[in-house]
Amino acid sequence: MTHEPFTYWMEPDGSYLGYLNSFPDHWTQGTDLDNLKVHLLDLYKELSKGDLPGIRKVEDLLVL
After folding, report:
1. Torsion over CA of 39, 13, 6 and 44, rounded to 10 degrees?
2. Structurally, how many domains does the chain consist of?
3. Range of the domain at 9
């Protein structure tokens, strides 16, 4: 099991928007926080396969 940080917020209409911090260009939405997490997990599975061209990803660089 691994952890994948994500950012989310609630819109004025009560829906939730969010994205995986490692894939900030790809947002998803949910009717509530639990539903958003389901969509984020689906997004993670699809984007982490590595077979989609043009997917930008954010990582940390260790600088010594």
Report:
1. 20
2. 1
3. 1-64
Tell me: the pLDDT tens digits for 15-43? 999 999 999 999 999 999 999 999 999 99
**Residue closest to 23 by CA, chosen among 39, 1, 34:** 39
| CB atoms near residue 55 (< 10 Å) | 14
pTM greater than the 0.85 cutoff: yes
CATH of the domain at 23: 3.30.160
Helices (H), the chain: 33-47
> Going by C-beta distance under 8 Å and a sequence separation of 6 or more, which residues neighbour residue 48?
none
